[in-house]
Specification:
Blueprint lengths: L3 E6 L4 E7 L1 E6 L2 E5 L6 E5 L2 E7 L2 E7 L2 E5 L4 E5 L2 E2 L6 H16 L4 H21 L2
Parallel strand pairs: 1-9
Antiparallel strand pairs: 1-2, 3-4, 3-6, 5-8, 6-7, 7-10, 8-9
Helix pairs in contact: 1-2
């Protein structure tokens, strides 16, 4: 299978940079698979678990909101957060879930509700990945 260059960036670091066989991301329309020579596209990334295939090995990471830019020479993922499973601390994630759930039910504005809903979605994606 042909490989393509993938770079994943967060505000804190270059999370990943290398050649991969396949990338699977979660968009508002559902899951999207990207292979070498994919049609150029820019699409929004939803909080979920991104999947990367290198050779016969699949790796997963928990991601926050972001964008995926597919170009002929390189695919770039820009997102607010990205973590490998071994970087996730379950106790911290559980506290975030509890706090976001509490804030969600007592949100006083639409913006506050949406922010807490997004935090909850990120936390559940992290929890699912860490428990695999």
């Amino acid at each position: 299978m042909a490989q393509f260059e993938l770079e994943i960036l967060t505000p804190e670091r270059t999370f990943f940079h290398g050649f991969v066989d396949c990338l699977i991301v979660e968009t508002s329309e559902g899951q999207m698979g990207i292979l070498a020579r994919h049609e150029p596209i820019v699409i929004g990334l939803q909080p979920a678990n991104i999947k990367i295939k290198i050779g016969e090995v699949w790796r997963e990471a928990a991601n926050g909101f972001g964008f995926v830019t597919v170009r002929p020479e390189k695919t770039i993922v820009l997102c607010e957060t990205m973590e490998w499973p071994e970087e996730i601390i379950l106790n911290k994630v559980q506290r975030i879930i509890e706090e976001s759930s509490r804030k969600l039910t007592s949100a006083s504005s639409r913006l506050e509700y949406k922010l807490n809903k997004a935090a909850l979605a990120r936390a559940f994606a992290r929890m699912r990945l860490a428990k695999k």
